[in-house]
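ligand=zinc ion
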Amino acid sequence: MPFNCRPPLTLFRIQLPFACFICRQPFNQPVVTRCGHYFCEDCAIAHHKKDIRCFICKEPTLGIFNTATKILKRQAKIAKQKEQADEEEEEPEVKPDKSRNSSLDELGLETGEDAPTIVV
Ligand SMILES: [Zn+2]
Ligand SMILES: [Zn+2]
C-alpha cells in the first residue's frame, strides 16, 4: 500500500495512485499503459524489456506507454496546495495564541471563585 508511507497525502483521496508499483517511489515522469496502470517511464520501459505484460494486471502492454497527464496535473496541484498551506500556517500562529491565552486565564479565575458561592 503506497498510501501508508505518506500520511499527509491521504487527505487527497483520488483514484489515481501516488507511487509507482514497480519502484514504490513517487512517479518520475509518469506514464500510463493501455490497461490504465501507471508507472515511471523508466520503470515501465525496464519492465517491458523483461516482460511484455503489464506489471500489475499482466495484460500485454505492447510497449505502449502514454504520458500520464492526470498524474502530472495532480502532482502540480499538490505542490501548489503545499506551498499555500505552508504560507498560511506561519502567519496566524503568533496572533491567536496571545489573545486566547490571556482571555482564558481571566475566565478561569472568575468562574473558579464564583462557583463555590452558588453551591453553598
Ligand atoms: Zn517507478
Ligand atoms: Zn495493467
